Amino acid sequence: MAIADVKEYCHLTPEEVEQIGAELDAIRAEIEESRGDADAAYINRVITVQRWMAAAARIGMIVSSPMDKKVRGPVLAASAVSLGLAKILENMEIGHNVMHGQWDWMNDPEIHSSTWEWDTGQPAEQWKHSHNYIHHQFTNVLGFDNDIGYGVLRMAREQKWHPVNLGQPVYNALLASLFQWGVALHDLDLEAIRKGKKDPKEMKRQLKQIAKKGRNQILKDYVLYPALSGKQWRSTLKANATANVMRNVWSYLIIFCGHFPDGALHFTEDELEDETRSEWYLRQVLGTANFEGGKLLHVMSGNLGYQIEHHLFPDLPSNRYAEISVKVRALCDKYDIPYTTGPLHRQYGQVLRVIHKLSLPNKLTQDDKPPTGKDITVEHGRRQDEERQQRRLELGGWSRSAS
Amino acid sequence: MTSTTPERRPRVSWEGFRKAADTLTTPLLPDDYLTLLNPLWSSRELRGRVEKVIPETEDAATLVIRPGWGWHYDHRPGQYVGIGVQVGGKFQWRSYSVSSAPKRSGRTLAITVRAMPEGKLSEHLVKGLSPGTIVRLATPQGDFVLPDPPPARMLFLVGGSGITPVMSMLRTLDRRGTMGDIVLHYSSTTPERMIFRDEIAALHERHPGLSFHARHTDTDGIFELASSDAGLDAICPDWRERETWACGPGPMLDAAEAHWEEAGIADSLHLERFSLSLGGDGGEGGSLSFQNSGKNIDVDGATTVLEAGESAGVGMPYGCRMGICHTCTVTKISGTVRDLRNGAEFDQPNEQVQTCVTVPVGPCVLNI
Q1: Nearest partner of A272 among A98, A161, A141, A182, judged by Cα
Q2: Under an 8 A CB cutoff, do A219 and B44 touch?
Q3: Stretch A258-281: mean pLDDT, rounded?
Q4: Of B45, B92, B294, Cβ closest to residue A110
Q5: Using one digit for the tens of pLDDT, what is the confidence trace for A25-40?
Q6: Prediction ipTM score
Q7: Measured between CB atoms, which of A107, A225, A398 is closest to B317?
Q8: Alpha-carbon distance A117 to A163, whole Å?
Q9: Which residues of A touch B88 (CB under 8 A)?
Q10: Which backbone phi and psi does A289 adopt, to 5 degrees?
Q11: What pTM was estimated for this model as a whole?
């Protein structure tokens, strides 16, 4: 069900919890002090590779258009894949991490959380609010973390069942393939708009940002580049759509494996009350799941296979999460704190099971999560910012433009 | 593509073309892709490539830099530029006077740097920078400049690496053939440490109007301005009638300032200070909130906004830390700050403030 107090759940004394917090702070300090040339070279290398892949894909589609069909086919296919991979790399390892402020320490205005805009439908500013603040601070707290099902899926047994949930398998497939647009609308809070609770001025401001960003994205992928391919505009359009779907499905998959496998637990509002920094750390470990894989898999998923480490230290450079994970795991073993990880296919298998089971009322299915606290039910609807605790400091920057 | 002839301006400018290309590279800029081909092909941040490192003395070197797109070769002789170098993965900024003469048709600019005993970055610039390194640049700034046309009679008082802006002025005068009646007094600890000594000697050969007084303070002692037999009156009896530019260590500039003030002609003295003493009245201090990082701190009237932000744990940008390079500029959303150099107060909302030389007066909110 859900945890009301992390200390109690882990059978830890307040002193032990503070000790864990101090050890995690020490890991943070060690990484902060050792950031240097090699890390800067890493992110610059990833950015260079990503831009070459994107440029090669766009050029490949254009120059192959007058060619013979036998040549054009393979070039087009390779270009579509290259563009898809470039978009994945940009969204996951570059955009998401830069916007958390992981690279702000370099003092480089071109790779900075305050200026980065990513290659997807959602404006960076709204992402930095819905993700850096709402999701990272209130991780897996029922009624507070809007990422528990994104307002589309029922992903916790405590969320009230509604007959609409029967369609979950379909909504899930739609969300996976249209993920970038789902994310684009995420910070708007459609439910509040439907109920007329949304501040109309703020809604207008956000909609304007989304419309502008979305227009630029669509114009580029579905009008301008196809037009540059002349008679072959249709194949370029298809290739771009393929690349976008590739990115959508992949980022959906990685993100869903972060908090919906069985080991990732939910919390009630009580946990937030007087929560210390150390307790916040503990909640991040308990509410998050890693997945295992090779180096390439981790880079292509923005190092979110180290989701636990990312949630503990959202603003530390992603290339360091692998080494951090060794220490975090040892710490968890020492204090007997559950550390959820497994191969990607198993983690996603559990996610799918949750999606299907929770499309039905609770009494028809069994809970696969480890037994936790009390049985509660949370109503639909989001908390407004005024009803929330103040922002934590290490989640990454968030700024609002006037328009 | 940029055939700009005076008779016919192109209807589609290069800048305009790049702007149109934005729609293809959005959310990035065309420049972000062009730098893949040549690191100088971007005007997003001004860049330069170090072409040559010319050792001047044992501890000083001239960096010849080829700037990238967006750079206008129209600095005024005597101005300084900001240079940002990535050290340990982090961009560090300092400002140095341009020592080359401005040249519209130019391809490079030169700055001369002396490694300071405690200056890690200057040491790196002199000894650790290899040709081919890409650096960031900031546009030329500063009021310590040669007027155009130059006054007929001038006096330059120089100490140590203070020669660099003056060298830019002398080269300009030489190139334009406007070298008039000039007295240059240049102090350096030893002859070996005297940057540009050969070039100045050569200029002196070519231009009889340029008189050059070299002083080696290790053997000759400090130049006493007021001394009657070896002071200013001895080397340049008509100094009161000359426009004077002085550049060098703080005590030297203080002495010059006092001397000119005593003579009642402070207006004809131009100073360039490379280190700043913040003597201004700080006022009562205040509480600062850093909006984007969500941090707050209360500070007294002697703590700059930059120092306050740093102690609160905000990743504040900074460069020279003395109010010249503007790297530290941040938008102040509300409240009032005071400039410690001159007491000027900035109280407008959404105003850009230099955090390294300002202190809060009451509560302030900053956009960082």
Answers
A1: A141
A2: no
A3: 93
A4: B45
A5: 999 999 999 999 999 9
A6: 0.91
A7: A107
A8: 39
A9: 36-37
A10: -130, 140
A11: 0.87
